[in-house]
Amino acid sequence: MRRGDSAPAGLAGGHMEDGGVLKEGFLVKRGHIVHNWKARWFVLRQNTLLYYKLEGGRKVNPPKGQILLDGCTITCPCLEYENRPLLIKLKTRTSTEYFLEACSREDRDAWAFEITGAIHAGQPGKVQQLHIQRNSFKLTPHISLHGIVDKMHDSGSGIRPSPNLEQGSTYKKTFNGSSLVDWLISNSFAANRLEAVTLASMLLEENFLKPVGARSTGAVRSGDLAEQFLDDSTALYTFAESYKTKISLREDINLSTMELSGTVIKQGYLAKQGHKRKNWKVRRFVLRKEPAFLHYYDPSKEENRPVGGFSLRGSLVSALEDNGVPTARSAPNCSPAGPINT
Questions:
Q1: What region, left, alpha or beta, does residue 95 occupy, with left being phi > 0 and alpha being psi -120 to 50 degrees?
Q2: Phi, psi (5° rounding) for residue 16?
């Protein structure tokens, strides 16, 4: 959320300090003493990054803490936690480390861009240098494609393929395009995402990697080398020698697999009210279509499995004011509080 955007309805009760807000929104933060993960509402200013606790779905003043950005260094992508690939690491002048997790690669990169700009606010040339993308890329003489692939296979610091689902089919030993781009940058094989995509395309061209599933194979058939590899979390790839055919869906397949087979069309953090205790907790929501489901995940947990969800077919949707009364506004293609068209 950038300056000028309105805060989520659940956070409207804690008024933001006037002026100077560069970006705000949910991030999941690792604790300093006990390394658990908790969602916090972050507010980026020119010199500081503030974070707030939530109570009753609302931001609690004063801030729970702050990160001083003067002299801070930022690492993005940060791959220090295998099960949390969307991390940003901030290291302060006093060597205190903060780990912050976003809900998507796009959200993570947007936060990293804004924080980097805030860190180097007094050095406009430095900001431009940090974010410029070079138009050409050549593999340096001391790096070979074979060496990169060997590093990718390393059991400690390489890429670990896992089962992934695309359009109702499960593919073994695969990884997505965005994860490989993050890995190439994190291991200093590329300076930015453009270079990493070009390098990954070279790995494809030389048959070190194979595309898996309709999304990535369709890109390869485009014929344009620069567009063959997709920096996308839904495009799957595998090592050429470990390529396996897909496992087709059967009629008796587990229902949860069917629920998760739809295409992801939106994801992000929301504050959700509990069914029984009526308390509020931040969850990462993922909206899918064909079939249409809304699932939510607990960001404090390591495993990437939904803790709840429901089908949207036949569901009713209403926008609520602070007093809980539905508004008279209607969503596109449906009447007020009417069924969602799925």
A1: left
A2: -75, 145
pLDDT tens string 223-236: 565 567 899 888 89
Going along the chain from its start, the domains and CATH numbers come out as 9-131 (2.30.29.30), 145-242 (1.10.10.10)
Q: What is the mean pLDDT of the chain?
A: 76
Handedness of CA 152, 155, 156, 161 (dihedral sign): positive
- Greater confidence (203 vs 8) lies with 203
Q: Which amino acid is at 252?
A: D
C-beta of residue 39 within 8 angstroms of C-beta of residue 10: no
All residues at 6 or more sequence positions from 96 whose CB lies less than 8 Å from its CB, including other chains = 32
Residue 252: which residues within 8 A CB-CB, separation 6 or more?
none
Tokens 């302060």 locate to: 92
Q: 152 to each of 145, 157, 158, 186, how far by Cα in Å?
A: 10, 7, 4, 12
CA diameter of the chain: 65
Give 102's DSSP letter. Answer: -
DSSP E strand stretches across the chain: 23-30, 37-44, 48-52, 54-55, 58-59, 65-68, 73-78, 87-91, 97-101, 162-166, 169-176, 209-212, 236-239, 263-273, 280-289, 293-297, 308-311
**Mean of pLDDT values over 64-83:** 89
